[in-house]
Amino acid sequence: xxxxxxxxxxxxxxxxxAWLAEHVPAKPLPSMDTAEGFARHxxxxxxxxxxxxxxxxxxEAYHGRDCSPLQWLLFEEEYYAAGAPGRVGQNGxxxxxxxxxxxxxxRQRDRILPPMATGEQVWAQAWSEPEAxxxxxxxxxxxxxxxxxxxxxxxxxxxxxxxxADRAFGLFRTDxxxxxxxxxxxxxxxxxxxxxxxxxxxxxDGEPGFAEIFLDHVFVPDEDVLGEPGEGWRVAMTxxxxxxxxxxxxxxxxxxxxxxxxxxxxxxGRPASAADRVADAWIGxxxxxxxxxxxxxxxxxxxxxxxxxxxxxxxxxxxxxxLHETALDLLGPEGEAAGSxxxxxxxxxxxxxxxxxxxxxxxxxxxxLLGLPREARR
Length: 378
Ligand SMILES: Cc1cc2nc3c(=O)[nH]c(=O)nc-3n(C[C@H](O)[C@H](O)[C@H](O)COP(=O)(O)OP(=O)(O)OC[C@H]3O[C@@H](n4cnc5c(N)ncnc54)[C@H](O)[C@@H]3O)c2cc1C
Known about the structure:
- With 378 residues, this protein is an alpha+beta fold.
- The chain has helices at 7-23, 35-50, 69-81, 90-103, 106-117, 232-245, 251-267, 272-300, 309-331, 340-348, 358-369, and strands spanning 123-125, 142-146, 149-156, 167-173, 184-190, 196-201, 210-221, 225-226.
- The protein folds into three domains: 7-87, no CATH class; 123-231, Beta Barrel (Butyryl-CoA Dehydrogenase, subunit A, domain 2), CATH 2.40.110; 249-370, Butyryl-CoA Dehydrogenase, subunit A, domain 3 (Up-down Bundle).
- The strands form two sheets. It has a four-stranded mixed beta sheet with strand order 1-4-5-8.
- A hairpin with an 8-residue loop joins strand 6 (196-201) and strand 7 (210-221).
- Residues 125-128, 133-134, 158-160, 350, 353-354, 356-357, 359-360, 363 line the site of flavin-adenine dinucleotide.
């Protein structure tokens, strides 16, 4: 790809840099895994939207700026370099929205995207179930036909911030006779609808960052089915590929963190013992950045995200853990105190789990990219 940045993209980057310098809160917002922090992050989403920075890659008609994938990547780099808050709207904006663009109807897009862009409606991902995490096709939650829609029943778990979110998207079995990933349908539902119970699950730090969701004959109208009934697996792959392979974890986040790590190393007297690890983290973040530029070029030329997403996921999750471990080692006993490096470290530990564990990404790489024999499955 051509890595020279054209004048329009450079102007966009400068505009973003100036806006962020003026608006990023001087003090970090409280954690979005708490009710107060969630509300503050929602306000931040509204501010971003007002200046048309919340969904830069979307069409202008939906609050976006029609940015190319490369321009979006440049924006993300500025965003994280400025130390801007985490995105409470991320599940909707970076996972559900690309799915709506690929499989939704124009009416669904008109109805769902505007309040998503402004943070007025925040979405949770309701995929995992007690017996269906890695093996999502083993899910048991079901939907049965009723007048004008469907009745959803079952249990979802590990749903990030569902305790505070407004709506959720998930897969339900609509054909009990069909095998595994056949007979599934992709639904969007209201977390405050009759028949929905959301129970927070505290994390190790006590914050109610997760929730389990119980559904008891919850009515969902036909207009909230995404894609065709029975086609849920195919639709879900668009969401999963965006979670692993592009939009949920853009390289800007890791490039910024590796820059902060290099600064920390200098502040701590440039210890030779850590030099290689700091360099590895920095190079790893840059390698991920360049790989993602390649993905962006592929998409710009009409390509799509596929099983290569698993390479991305494995790569960034490892870079993130190594980077934060190095920072804590540099900090020594000081690293035990609460602070952004400890928070970042604890969150990095989840990277090899959410969005599909490392083991599952390795299976995908082995079987679908390298063509190795499939492992025996039940
Ligand atoms: C911070 C965080 C946020 C999350 N947010 C959400 C969310 O918002 N919404 C949501 O739906 N879910 C969410 N999850 C859940 C996450 O997607 C699941 O935890 C993940 O898919 C793993 O599923 P599981 O926990 O059921 O583990 P299991 O599937 O039970 O796996 C347990 C272990 O066995 C290994 N294993 C399983 N099958 C195989 C195999 N075939 N080959 C090799 N090894 C295997 C796994 O890799 C893992 O190490 C989140 C998780 C975390 C940590």
